[in-house]
Amino acid sequence: MSVKTIGKFLINDLHIHLRQGALMKAVTPALNNAGIGAVFVMPNLQPPITTSDQAIAYRSELQKLAPNVTFLMSLYLNPDLTPAEIRKAKANGVVGVKSYPRGVTTNSEGGIESYLVYYDVFGTMEEVGMVLNLHGEIPSDPDNDICILNAEERFLTHLKQLHADFPNLRIVLEHATTRAAVECVKSLGSTVGCTITVHHLELIVDDWAGKCHNYCKPVAKYPHDRKALQDVIKEGHPRFFLGTDSAPHPRHLKETSSCAAGVYTGEHILAYLANALASFDAIERLLQFGTNFGAAFYRLTDADLKGASAVTLVEQDFVIPKIIKFIDDEGVAREIIPYKAGETLKYTVNA
Amino acid sequence: MSVKTIGKFLINDLHIHLRQGALMKAVTPALNNAGIGAVFVMPNLQPPITTSDQAIAYRSELQKLAPNVTFLMSLYLNPDLTPAEIRKAKANGVVGVKSYPRGVTTNSEGGIESYLVYYDVFGTMEEVGMVLNLHGEIPSDPDNDICILNAEERFLTHLKQLHADFPNLRIVLEHATTRAAVECVKSLGSTVGCTITVHHLELIVDDWAGKCHNYCKPVAKYPHDRKALQDVIKEGHPRFFLGTDSAPHPRHLKETSSCAAGVYTGEHILAYLANALASFDAIERLLQFGTNFGAAFYRLTDADLKGASAVTLVEQDFVIPKIIKFIDDEGVAREIIPYKAGETLKYTVNA
Q: Mutate which of A205, A221, A226, A258 to test chain B, going by most B C-beta atoms within 10 A?
């Protein structure tokens, strides 16, 4: 049987959760030869990564686990962050600062409530060339009709205000899920980028309702929202690029009364992405969306990406594992259920 | 410590799932002296209740388990239902016919796709005075932007058409969840009623996202939708009445990758209802919403309700059990997790 070769790819994942301890060790090594060049690593650990020193130490841990991958590090925006710390972070190669509105996702209890107190920090970030990464949801507020379905749309005024006040600050609206967000980012200047996950290209609200392994924040929304995410990739808009938000949780924290938010795509991201793009006839955008647009926005150089090698993507059935086993920090046998567990993708990486 | 007495109540639950076999035996007996007069029993068993004979046999089983409760029975709308069967059902005291759109909730795979083929049946129901009970959602259809969030609103054209074509047929829009549904029912004639669950008075989308025990169909929606449900009760609209949609599932079918849809309120419905109404200052509507409006729409007589006795509702803390244990039909120990498990309500029934 002949196998159709799509091409050689080395993608960049500009939004990933790699955790810490045993879970980090369970998910990071497999990234090493998976066709992944650079990953932008989220800082929402326990405790969060708030200083350059922590970020450097975390990067060092990750590099040992996957030496060929370029780990782009971030700090967790918090009131103790100073312009001096921003300069130090920049000097140490830290790339971005992540803002979490309070309480909207995993380990975001220390998230922000107002951006005004951070204007000195943002000014310094703009000056030194760091990226501001926004989890673009406001906290739910039923008295004002705000819930997880409109929390992203209601956040967009903040994005517009920040861009107006810091026009040269590179800002990324992370994991956009709505048509409103896509239209807003398109309307803004060249310093505003936007990540899109693979699962938000495939899921709508029906797909996570009662299906815990598809439950993430922001939640997948209406079909017209999914269509807008697909369309902006299909048109090849250069400010929209891959950020998987891959977010592993042990199975027992997913299949329970209060499910942890996060979809795990992990090391199979190239296959997932090809499969998703093909579903709406956009596989010809794989190189742009998956590699080049993100690299350009983050100003990655060949030197930044020297570690990893491109891999060959082929059109061939590939069954996602049903379960990934690991031993947690307490020595307990645990499982991770990956996205599309047990399902057959139409693409795979040629070993 | 003095306990404030709210009054004596005997409520009617015009939408309840009592299941079959071991699960039926686990949840039905507790209804017997819980201040519940009549319950309207859903027919979505396996196989569904499609004939009078089945309905009578099912009623007989239920009456043995809770002899003081009046069980109002329904048939599952399906292509084999004939005008003759409707007349037989009416003669045997069957009260309604339930329509499930295909595939939208538990055991609805045999649901309807178009109402036109049922017009003979509906005409006979109108003539003999049976009630048509509508699960008011259309199936999701992403190509037309239809998902579980707008499936109810998109259904309302069917409700309006049925009411226009059968103006004397009593129709109940079951478990309304949206402002659109409330406004639609209000706009229609006196033969159109609407049930509202307790949990939809309290939950929004945030409350079932990742929280399987609050996941039901139709799903709870925006805060403004919840407000509309509360408001129509607060204003005392006589065509809106209690139907809990109490729907027990064993825990292992809830806390899993594909969660069964249903919230279990069961025998504590009077306490739940008082607690919910009090949360939006509407406890004075308890008698109307919980008892009288439903009885009037269903034309229940004192003779229909002779079995049960009113119970005394008091303002006193009441902790909902965390777990209800039962042995399933295979002899396996199972659990049901009730709504608000482990939480403290402010009202209880005085034993």
A: A205
